[in-house]
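User: Could you check the structure of this?
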Amino acid sequence: MAATAEDNKSVVGKTKSNTDEVIDEATRVKVTVNLRPEDLETLRAIAKRRKITLTEAIRRAIAMERFVEAAIADGGNLLVEQKDKRLRQLVLVD
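Assistant: Sure, the predicted structure tokens are below.
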């Protein structure tokens, strides 16, 4: 849910994330995950490069996965334009 500046003035007990999404603090759940060291380092590098927290980097990765899955489920394709302007289709395998 995107929030406007007006929305943020009247919201109590909620915070605004780096993506302008209003997050209800009461709905957060703390989890523990096991990651390979290289996966953790990748997340840390992303967080550092984007100047966000590790938690926000994980949230964004989940949001991207949700977006990609929904687009593919709706019949879409995932295309990446390379430097030479060629397109590559990425195929996700279950």
